[in-house]
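Appendix B. Raw example, untouched.
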Amino acid sequence: MINDANYYRHGVVMWIFILVVSGYLCRLFYLQIIEDKYRRQAESNALVHRTKYAPRGLMYDRNGVLLVYNQPAYDVVVTINEMSKTGGTASVCRTLGIDWAQYEERMSEIKDVNRNRGYSKYTPQIFMTQLSMEDIAELQENIHYKYPGFAIQHRTLRDYTYPNAAQVLGSIGEVSQTDIDRDNYYARGDYAGRDGLEYTYEQDLRGEKGVEILLRNSRGRIVGNYENGAYDVEPKAGSNITLTIDVKLQILAESLLKGKIGSVVAIEPKTGEILALASSPTWNPSLLVGRKRSQNYDILVHDPTKPLMNRALQAQYSPGSTFKTVQACVALQLGGITPDRTFPCSGPGSQPIKCTHHHGSPVSLLNAIEQSCNPYFWLAYKNTLEKNGYGKDNANFREQYNRWRDCVMSFGIGHKFEDSDLYQQSRGSIPSTDLYDKWYRGTASWNSMTIRSNSIGQGEVQITPLQIANAAATIANGGYFISPHLNKADSMLNRRHDAKVDKRYFPYVQEGMWRVFEYGTGRHYKIPGISMCGKTGTVDNNHGRPHSLFIGFAPKESPKIAVAVVVENSGFGATWAAPIASLMMEQYLTDTIARTDLKQRISTSVTNTNVKTYNQ
């Protein structure tokens, strides 16, 4: 019995010992392997991990001209545990040009663990960012003995060769907590692309961060690199990007739009490469760099002319008579007209749409494009939708309307270019039958007469300047387009889109557009020796004078450039948009402007006195 009792006690003790040891081992495993918070805290007492920021990739134009580069900049970081307990704060404020309230606010933000989730009093925290050498000169001179806890961290800021293309290039801004949660590359105080190409190609441009590991002594002072830098990681610079933009053409476009509200889009038809993408009003991109970014951004946001809106991609307009080129293609395809079909321009047969020109009657297709005959295109539209008596049978009419709509949208109109790198496009609109059913409260309550304004590019048809430029490129190519894009290295040639119109019809429309420059509304702006194709548009709107529009391409035989121009509230298409488009073609095709008087007149003329110049 005694032996049994001893054996029992011995077993109990052994099991208690095993359980205690197992508990310690499990806890040790948890602390060291699973929960590394305490390990990191211990390390942070001795080691300081300082981020080494990668320089962002550069941007060049299509001819290798440098557009966007980097300049040195500096952050001030603070390690709370190292700060002096005896003062010096007033001196820091004075040196950095801030007041006490700003200092207190920033320190409160740093210590707020809900907003600054990476906060630790033992690790460097961003205090101020994007300072120039002039801003930190005094601080750098005295930082080691006069400002304990503060340090200077190197990074780069964007700089620009030209004060142009702000909406295309985009800008850099501080990341939000949402950005940090979505991508663990970022930390509080980091910067990333906020719009334009800087946003689209952020992951290519940002590169890879490096890290410098510094050793701290028992008093908390930095004494040098840990293990002589053996564990440091050098940053990797971001990738450079060559754009499709021709900077000479971009500068010209912006100069011609000065004092106006509108946009210019130029495309190389065969490749879909965007040669120029200008929106007015605009600003010098350097205004949104550095410490004054927030102040300048606020000014731009509150400008009633909306300079931050890229009108080339986001504004939506009725295309007016420029739409007649697409209308002609679709009517030919769907059998609403033939190349020889004529319609009356005046009299009862042309009603209810009247012509704004005097060119006799009847009118052929080529003459209708040349002279922009409204009744011709209304009757062509009506004939297309009501073909074979479809107007008397609502189901067949709706089916034919959907065919018309499908053909129009195949020109890149009424939807975004989803396979493109363009930032924040608007869709435009080619109304659906469902929308008309809703508007007119029934499928039998609308017909070609109720939607007749669509025939001449008014009514419910809405386009963006990019879309109508792309439509011009589609006609120039004889029936296809490559999605418009801005990165020249990103070949889009395998992303060809064919319009749903037989290629045999395009020469008729091209010929009509050629006649616009030879005999019609564009004849005063023809470039000698170059066969040019175009179409003017004067678009009524409910907010003042008509918008001036133009689309065109040149040369006719082998098009190298397609252009769309919109000048808001300025009058006739032939007065403003046509000469701007013609000058754009001349610059690109001849590398010079011979018509200097025309360029001077357009550049110095103001159509909207509310347009401000932001450091151009």
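End of appendix B.
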